[in-house]
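Saturday, quiet lab. Running sequence design on the structure tokens for the scaffold JK sent over.
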């Protein structure tokens, strides 16, 4: 997860898969670290992966004192999620250059 204001990585999950439950845990941790009392909740932008379409994720967005706005990008438009796509590209390149 990236804060597009300062481009800081605010949360991440590393694993062979990524379930809705894991996304929710990561988002909760990021909110606990970054969201200050009285601050407006962030807008969460994601693709249309099953994790983000799940009931569990929708409930998390709605359960907070001030509900989170979940903005999904249109299918097949990764350019609308450019910050995280760029980060993934750098991560993948560094992995192949330094690990393999």
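Result came back. Writing it out in full:
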């Amino acid at each position: 997860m990236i804060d597009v204001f300062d481009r800081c990585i605010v949360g991440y999950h590393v694993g062979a898969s990524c379930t809705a439950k894991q996304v929710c845990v990561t988002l909760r941790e990021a909110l606990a670290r970054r969201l200050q009392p009285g601050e407006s909740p962030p807008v969460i932008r994601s693709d249309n992966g099953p994790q983000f379409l799940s009931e569990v994720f929708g409930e998390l967005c709605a359960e907070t004192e001030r509900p989170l706005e979940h903005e999904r990008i249109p299918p097949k438009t990764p350019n609308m999620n450019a910050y995280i796509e760029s980060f993934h590209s750098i991560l993948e390149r560094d992995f192949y250059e330094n690990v393999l």
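Notes for JK: The mean pLDDT is 94. Residues 17 and 51 are 11 Å apart (CA to CA). Ask whether to fix the surface positions before the next round.
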